[in-house]
Amino acid sequence: VSRKWRQLGRAAAGLAALGVVWSLTFGPDRSTVVAQQDDWTTDYARRIGVRLLEARSPSGTPAYPVAAGDLLFFTNTGTSYGSKSPKNAVVVINARTLKPIAVSDLEPAWSEGWTSHGIGVSPDARYVYLPAIPPVKATNPGSLLVLDARTLRIVQILTTPGGRPHHVKMYEDWESRKRVLVEDFNWLGSGTFGSKDGTGFYALDPADRNRVVGGMTIGDVRGTPYAGFTAPDGRYLYFSVPGPTMAFGVSQQLQGWVSKIDMQTWTVAQHIPMGHYPLWTVFSQDGQWAWTTNSGDEKAFKLQRSSTPGQGDKVVAQAPTGPGPYGLRLSIDDKELWVADKGEGRATRGKTVTVVDTETNQLKRTIETDCVVNDHLILSPDGQQMWATCNQSHEVVVIDAKSYQVKARIPMPNQGDSHGGSFVAYRQGPTGLVGETVSDTNGLHGSAREAARKGVPWSVTSGAN
Amino acid sequence: MGAMSLRGRRFGMWVLAGLVAWAAVWGFWPGDGRGPVVQAQQDNWTTEAARTVGVRLIEARDASGRPAYPVEAGDLLFFTNVGTAYGAKNTTNSVVVINAKTKKPIAVSDLDPEWSRGWTSHGIGVSPDARYVYLPGLAAPKASNPGALLVLDARTLKIAQVITSPAERPHHIKNFQDWTGRHRVLVEDFNWLGSGTMRSSVGTGFYVLDHTDSNKVVGGMTPNDLRGAPYAGFVAPDGRYLYFSNPGPQMPPAASGQLKGWLAKIDMQTWTIVQNIPMGAYPLWTVFTQDGQFAWVTNSGNDKVVKVQRVSTPGPGQIERVVAEVPTGPGPYGLRMSIDDKELWVADKGEGRGERGKTITVIDAVANKVKRTVETDCLVNDHIILSPDGQEMWATCNQSHEIVVLDARTYATKARIPMPNQGDSHGGSFVVYRQGPGGLVAETVSDLSGLHGSARDAARKGTPWVP
């Protein structure tokens, strides 16, 4: 027994010695597990909690034809507001013929019963951003679906802590970098638009695989950020903060404020006291003035922006609106403020647009559009039309910006609910067709903005003439 | 026997060599530094709640030593803080222990300079069993240490633990007893946006400690959870609902009345908000009647207090609402109900005002009217603490660096207790000592959150409290 034990002991020692040699020779390699390389997630993404859940091949047959000189309008159709549409989808409309030319057909697991209350297109029109709010029994999380704008197929899926993507808008920052702002519904509570965990908002770089390059959490704002808009200087972002729950603001129980955010540092530079349920903000082209919907008060507040360091922006006028105002848009010459009388939080379904004279700050006229529950107004890039998206009458109503006449009604495919949109112009470039997003829910962009600032006509083919 | 022993030793050596070599293969060899497995230190303090709120235990020390002051059965002590703000001459953030009967300070803590010199505090707390004193440590401008909650042994006044949070701006500490009868400690940070001593771009929110289990974090919420900047929280008599004031993201627009705030009613069973109750400008402090039917809240930006009628069973349509409002002095801050709930005492601090408050407004809590204004000359009086027998109101004076003791019946000033080193005092806790079976037993019987333990029981029964 003793000899056997000795032999066993020597064998064990021998094996162990072999192990030592192996360990010393190959040990460090053996101990290193190479993690998957995540070169998408930035510090901002980590901080806000934005994750790239999936990345897919964007290739495929284009979903619709385009040619130089085309002007398209990208909108969404969801499955809420009495919609007959079974799927959350992107709708592409020819802005000249005023006819839909394509509807996305996304896989059911990411679209059937899902809904959206916004849409966006990247500055170069490469991507369409479709918010996707899941139905109750969905297994996939609420996400921002990034589609290839030509194939209308999913390229990326981005998720957030709140999982309630709402609006998507493009902007150009103070260094002329083009960015995409994404904001979640951040209401407290549960259900389609509420969540215990909130997200806040974040900025994407569409030129770098939609990586997150900025943003803030709810904690950073110390409130519930609702909708943000960038001033013409590209540096300050004005975010409405209406209160922790929607009912609170709508019922005039709580005042809100607008957080003026310095995007160089992502810090709040000023809190501008508002009335009840502040929502949407627009700016005059010279950046001197801003207007903000105070939906709970049925008013739009006019802000004088400060150009002097140390002095804050202040409310200088209030103009009445229709019931539950939501989106705003300034006319191409900044002389009129158009207000979408959505009926937000009201029993009455809004079906008018209020036009305010921005010099006298008085009501100029009320346009009966019959666009039921009209949330957004988008200015056509030539400034001649206002496109009103109608949540509950499931159409887009095109209004002549000068005569106030309804020029066209574009029924949404499958009677889905449309919530905003983006105009994209196509031109012939040196190496092929080039797309440019020229207007969205954040106002005019690129060549259209340049033309408006110069006061010259804009055309699809040549941009700012 | 000898041969067997030698063979046995050889065998043992081989086995030992084999084991050592084998251990090296598996990476436990201590000397080579190339082992693939690093044994992490066992962190058995950090709970899931601590992780959620971002609270960390950065130091745990042996706080044993000689007691800093003598105590015996029958003693009633008052623990307060002295900071270095509000024109204080005091140079180190400290705990002050006062004999509540003689009304004389009997001890002052002497903490390490790197955790106290130039540091300040705007609050203080003592655990229900009076084992720990919680001293907020707001860091001096050039401090290398982070702002932290210093947990002191209440007898030695030495640091036992150092706890940090994302904002590093600890503010108030209060005891409460939850709906299952468990005693807990609530800690709230300053959560204002901005930078400076009382502001931070990163907010913490608040958290709850279990003082019987190494002060582990057992609950809490972040500004994100509340969708606001939580300021001060108070637990209702039922022990289940926590009322947290949310005055807005920054103090100036709130204090100037430009923004209105709200009161978040939080179910502590689920840490969810069951109602947001609209308030006026700058809601701050909340107190409850002993039967839990009413709450009073300071609306400092309006120089008012509002009375809230509570609902016994929250549910659809069961909404708590403001039923009365009563004017106060300038910039009201802390509140305290009299022992019989018939009077509401309001500390007219002058919060956010140019003028320094020096009065207490006494309100008839039944008629909802001002009953009288008491001239205390307690400058910038933030808190009022009821003595456990209900006979005295102790007012802490930030800027006159004293505690003013008022007779709760005659409204007369009974005593003025100058703070050691002319430091600024911000609240405090009464602790009673009794002889127990195994020695001296301590009980915290009153603090910023009202009466506790035996004092609360006596008040509820309407019987005199016996130390």
Question: Could you characterize what this model shows?
Answer:
The complex is a heterodimer of chains A (465) and B (467). Chain A is mostly beta strands and 465 residues long. Chain A is built from five helices and 33 strands. Chain A has helices at residues 2-31, 43-48, 218-221, 246-250, 446-454, and strands at residues 51-55, 71-77, 89-94, 99-103, 120-121, 127-132, 143-148, 154-159, 165-172, 178-184, 201-205, 211-216, 228-230, 236-241, 255-262, 267-276, 278-283, 289-294, 299-304, 314-320, 328-330, 336-341, 352-357, 362-368, 374-379, 385-390, 395-400, 406-411, 421-429, 432-440, 443-444, 458-459, 463-464. In chain A, the strands form eight sheets. In chain A, strands 4-3-2-29-30-31 form a six-stranded antiparallel β-sheet. Chain A is globular. Chain B is mainly β and 467 residues long. Helices cover 10% and strands 39% of the residues of chain B. Chain B contains five helices and 31 strands. Chain B has a six-stranded antiparallel β-sheet with strand order 4-3-2-29-30-31. In chain B, strands 1-8-7-6-5 form a five-stranded antiparallel β-sheet, with no helix packed on it. The model of chain B is unreliable at 23-35 (pLDDT under 50). Classes of the chains: A mainly beta (465), B mainly beta (467).
Keywords:
heterodimer; A: 465 residues; mainly beta; six-stranded antiparallel beta sheet; five-stranded antiparallel beta sheet; 33 strands; B: 467 residues; 5 helices; 31 strands; globular
Low-confidence parts of chain A, pLDDT < 50 over ≥5 residues? 27-31
The average pLDDT value of chain B, as a whole number, equals: 92
Sheet/helix structural class of chain A:
mainly beta
The shape of chain A is globular
Number of distinct helices of chain B: 5
The average pLDDT score of chain A comes to 93
| Largest interchain contact | A-B, 46 and 46 residues
The computed structural class of chain B is mainly beta
What is the helix fraction of residues of chain A, given as a range? 10-25%
End-to-end Cα distance of chain A, whole Å, is: 102 Å
Radius of gyration of chain B: 25 Å
Tell me which oligomeric state these chains represent.
Answer: heterodimer
Largest sheet data of chain B? 6 strands, antiparallel
Work out the strand percent of chain A: 35-45%
- Gross geometry of chain B: globular
Question: How much of the sequence of chain B is in beta strands?
Answer: 35-45%
Radius of gyration of chain A: 26 Å
Could you estimate the helical fraction of the residues of chain B in percent? Answer: 10-25%
Poorly predicted tracts of residues of chain B: 23-35
What is the number of strand segments of chain B? 31
